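Example record used in the benchmark description.
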Amino acid sequence: MRTTWGAKTSPGGIILASWGQIDRIVSRSDVVLHILDARDPLNTFSEKLVKITERRGKRIIIVLNKCDLIPRSIALDWRNYFEEKGYSTVYIAAARRMGTIKLRTTIKKTAPSLPAVVSVIGYPKVGKSTVINALKGRHSASTSPYPGSPGYTKTFQLYRVDKNILMIDTPGILPVEGDLVERIIRGYPPEKLEDPVNPAVLLIERVLRHNPQAFLHAYGIEAQEPLKILEEIAIMRGWFYKKTKEPLIEEAARAVIRDFHDGRIVYYVKPVEVQER
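Model output (structure tokens):
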């Protein structure tokens, strides 16, 4: 079974659903899977989606994806954090097919009746389509490495996962509500950023606050100053301006954003750090 609805493209090339479309999808769902990046769940958590879900009287499951990029203890801490707030929560690594059986079971337990219609909603780069593929057990929903590139989901699609689960794949990328860094790095493909240096600097600063050794482990760079890190990456990779022979830090900035999306840069936020603010 397959149904499609229209979506719109943002100036940055991302296929976004409007809030009206999100509301319509939620209204047609029995259960909403809110996919979060387990490395930084709160910055990928949508208060507005939760309010829409509650207003519609629908069930919601928090899915902490990319848990292979964080210690298991941190995944457990985040699961406990959300469950204490009243959310049914599952942690998975969809790209590795880890935790998907638990997620299937949780969907069936959470649904008011079976078969259930489930919507999968989240920000760009949280692994929404990968979750769908993992649940189905075969590659059916389109995925792409970076926001806005070919293969990105462009329409609302309804798939049969099994006899008890029908899944809506929103094109549905939520409008990003997070801070400036999240809005830029998740809202635009790295190649389409006219000035990638500023968001990369902000991203580097954030990463260093939580893991001062992140760039030493990722690139062998000991520097702790963002522009110096970008300069050293450019030199290491042979990226220089043709005329001035200065390091091409814009390309290094795009590389840092790509490597962050790919999980090459080790970074995660602990719930205790959020609670201590």
